[in-house]
Hints:
Blueprint: E1 2-5, H1 11-28, H2 34-50, E2 53-59, E3 62-70, E4 73-79, H3 88-98, E5 103-107, H4 111-119, E6 122-128, E7 139-144
Parallel strand pairs: 4-5
Antiparallel strand pairs: 1-2, 2-3, 3-4, 5-7, 6-7
Helix pairs in contact: 1-2
Amino acid sequence: MIVEEVTKRPEGLLGCLLLVWESSVRATHDFLSEQDVIMLRPAALDALRHVPLLLLAEEDEKPVAFLGMSGDAVSMLFVDADFRGKGAGGALLRAALARGAKRVDVNEQNRQALAFYLHMGFSVTGRSPRDGLGMPFPILHLAKV
């Protein structure tokens, strides 16, 4: 598996990453309805276009996971469902930590992601009742200890 920083974001790559996002969301965000997933696609694509630092994990030259970072915060980490549990998320997070990541927000209902971040040394520091889009999906704020 190769982890690298994405410096150019052509539409073809963004389309592949959006498929990774959707695969990951469908595997981990069972609290979202089909309408929610469809509604979130444009926001996910916009985030991929504009996140300051984008890291990519590839297997056989195929994107299998990605991580976005803004300042010292991980703003997104998604792993294709077929590659969950195979080290891509950990490799990306370690690369982000090496670049100064200290914070991350997680949907409270995404118990798998919460367990992952706790395992990686993060601790819950706060909670918001709504997500960044104002939807009623509580967010847990975590920081690296």
